[in-house]
Specification:
The structure is a homodimer of 322-residue chains.
Chain A: H1 6-15, E1 18-22, H2 29-44, E2 48-52, E3 69-70, E4 81-85, H3 97-101, E5 105-110, E6 121-124, H4 131-141, H5 148-161, H6 172-183, H7 188-196, H8 201-212, E7 215-217, E8 222-227, H9 229-235, H10 245-250, E9 257-265, E10 268-275, H11 281-286, E11 290-291, E12 295-300, H12 304-321
Parallel strand pairs in A: 1-2, 1-4, 2-3, 4-5, 5-6, 8-9
Antiparallel strand pairs in A: 7-8, 9-10, 10-12, 11-12
Helix pairs in contact in A: 1-4, 2-4, 2-5, 4-5, 5-6, 5-7
Chain lengths: 322, 322
C-alpha cells in the first residue's frame, strides 16, 4: 500500500465541516496526544471536530482533553471525515467501528507498520517514533498556526511513546520536532509534570510490592512478578496502576526479559513481556498473543500458578536458544 | 565575571601538550560525560589528556571511562592545563585541589551559575541544562572531529542532568544538540541502556522498601521516607543505591515536597529534599545545608527520629506559608 501525501490528507480535512477522530482503546499518551493536537488544530480552523472514545481517559492524560472527548456516538454519525490516529484496524476501536465507517471520507494516520490501511487516505510510517510526529507534519501541511496547546499535546505523544526519548524507536527527527515545538511555545516541564508526576500513592505501593516479591530466574537473565486481584484490593489500586512495573523490572542489570503476570479475573492471566536485547514477540505469539520485538503480551486462561510455570519455561527455553 | 569565549579556551587547549580534567566528587552523568567527551577529543588531537578522580566511578557510569580516569595524582602534577568541568570551586574536588592549582593554565567550564570562576579562563553558563552542552560547543570551537564516542558521552551528560529531558532546566538547545549528535553517529538507545537499565536488584528492593514505609503528611502535600543502615544491610544495598528514590516520591499526585532521610552513620542524618512546584532550598539552608530551588539537602546531627520530627515540622510550616 502506498501512502497518500500529507498534502492530500490536509486537503480532505480542509474541505470537511465535521470530523470525528478515533484514538485506540486503552488510549496512551501518543493516541490521545495525537488526537488532541489534531482536534485543537481543526477547531482553530473553524471545523466541528471531536474525539470519539469508548473507554475512560486515564487520570494522567486528562489534562489533554479540553472538552474534545465524546461518548455519545449516535449524535456524531455520518461525519464528513472519520480519522483514526495511532491505530489502523477496526478492532482497535470496536464499539466505534460503525461510527468510523459512517464517515463520508475515512483517513488513517498511524506509526504501526503492520496497519493494513483502512482509510480512503492513509499515512502509515512504522519508522516514526510516535504518531504525534506524523500529526505534527500533518498540521504543517494543513498550514495551521500551531499554538502552545497543540505543541504540548504533540510533545506528550512523543515523550510517552519514546519513554522520554530513551527507547530504541527514538530518532533524530523526534528531537528535531521537539526543538521546533519550543519555538511554538512548548511547556515541556509543565507537560512532563502532568504526565509523570501525578502518580497515585496506591500505584506506587503496588509497584513496590510487586517488585519486592519478584523472582529472578534463568541465571539472572529473566525476572517475573505477579499482580493478583487480592493485591489490587490490599493496596486500593486498579489494574491500570500496573503500568510501568514491567519496564522497571527490565531495567535491572543483567535482565534481558521481564514478565509481569496480571490476574484480570480468576483463570484469565495477562502476561506482559519486555526485552532489553532479545525478541519477546515470539514467546507471546506461541501463546496466541502478539506485539513488538521488545514489548509483547498474551493471555493464558489458567490459574496464576500454571501461567507462571508455562511462561517461565518458555522464557527459559528462549534464553537458552540465544 | 565575564566569560571567555570558547574560541579562547579552545586556543589554550590546542596549544597545550598535557591536560588534566577535573569532574566533581560524587560524579554524576554530566560530570563524567563532559570529562570523557573532552578527554576523548583531546586525545584524538594527539594531546596527553587524563581525567583525575578521587572517588570510585559509579557502576552505571563505568562505560564512559575508556581508560581516561587516573587516581595517581602525583604522577600528573604540573600539567600545561588544568580544566574543571561541571564544577567551579576547589571544595568540589578537595583531594585534587593541589593538582588543579599546579596547572600552568587553569580553565573552568560549568553550568552552575553560582560558580565563582576559579580559572584563568572561565565559561560559566547557569542557563545551560548540562555542562555537556557547553563541552559540545567547546569541541566545535576546537574544530575537533566529534566521533560516536564523544557523541555518546555528551548525550549521557545531557540526558542524565535533564532527567531524560523532563526537568525544568531542559531547553530547545538541549534537543538541538542531541539532534546534531545523531548526525555524528549517536547511539542513544545503547547509551540509555547503559545508564538506566543496569540497576541492581538490591537497589530496586531497597527503593521498594523505602516507598512502602513512606509517610504522607501535610494534607498529602509532603512525603517522607527513611533509609537506615539496618535497611542497607537487610537488602545488601549501598548508600549510593538511594539515588532516584526521592524523585519517585515527588512524582506522587498532590505531593509538592518529598524528603528522604539517609542514615550516613548513627547520629548523622542526610536529608534530601525535592520540590515539584515550591522551593526547598530555604528549608535546607535553615538546617545549614544548601542546593537549588527544586533539589536541596542538609545534614542533621541527631537520631533518625529527631531528624524526622525536625524536618517534618519545617516542611509543614513551609507548606502552610505558601
Amino acid at each position: 500500500m502506498k501512502n497518500n501525501s500529507f498534502k492530500e490528507i490536509a486537503g480532505q480535512l480542509k474541505e470537511a465541516g465535521s470530523i470525528v477522530i478515533f484514538p485506540h482503546i486503552l488510549m496512551d499518551g501518543d493516541a490521545l496526544g495525537s488526537a488532541a493536537a489534531l482536534c485543537c488544530a481543526l477547531r482553530s480552523m473553524g471545523k466541528d471536530a471531536v474525539i470519539a472514545v469508548e473507554d475512560k481517559v486515564p487520570d494522567y492524560l486528562q489534562f489533554l482533553d479540553k472538552g474534545y472527548c465524546i461518548y455519545d456516538l449516535e449524535k456524531y454519525m455520518n461525519p464528513d471525515v472519520s480519522i483514526c490516529v495511532d491505530c489502523g484496524e477496526l478492532k482497535r476501536f470496536p464499539e466505534r467501528a460503525e461510527l468510523f465507517k459512517s464517515g463520508k471520507t475515512k483517513i488513517c494516520v498511524d506509526h504501526h507498520g503492520t496497519s493494513p490501511g483502512i482509510g480512503d487516505y492513509n499515512y502509515i510510517d512504522g519508522k516514526a517514533a510516535a504518531t504525534g510526529e506524523l500529526i505534527y507534519d500533518l498540521l504543517l501541511a494543513m498550514e495551521c498556526d500551531i499554538d502552545v496547546e497543540m505543541a504540548n499535546a504533540i510533545y506528550a505523544a512523543i515523550t510517552t511513546d519514546t519513554g522520554n526519548f530513551q527507547y530504541s524507536n527514538t530518532t533524530r527527527r523526534s528531537h528535531e520536532i521537539v526543538m521546533e515545538l519550543y519555538d511554538l511555545g512548548l511547556d515541556s516541564y509543565g507537560t512532563s509534570v502532568s504526565l509523570y508526576e501525578n502518580e497515585s500513592f496506591e500505584k506506587m505501593k503496588l509497584q513496590s510490592a510487586a517488585i519486592n516479591d519478584s523472582e529472578v530466574f534463568a541465571e539472572g537473565k529473566a525476572i517475573i512478578a505477579e499482580i493478583s486481584l487480592d493485591m489490587l484490593e490490599q493496596y486500593g489500586a486498579r489494574m491500570e496502576d500496573t503500568e510501568g512495573i514491567v519496564g522497571m523490572m527490565r531495567s535491572i542489570k543483567g535482565v534481558d526479559i521481564a514478565i509481569l503476570l496480571k490476574e484480570k479475573e480468576p483463570g484469565n492471566i495477562k502476561a506482559s513481556l519486555r526485552a532489553k536485547h532479545g525478541d519477546v514477540s515470539k514467546i507471546a505469539v506461541a501463546f496466541k498473543g502478539g506485539g513488538h520485538e521488545k514489548a509483547a503480551g498474551c493471555t493464558i486462561y489458567d490459574s496464576m500458578a500454571v501461567a507462571r510455570e508455562l511462561i517461565m519455561k518458555a522464557v527459559s527455553e528462549e534464553l537458552c536458544r540465544e
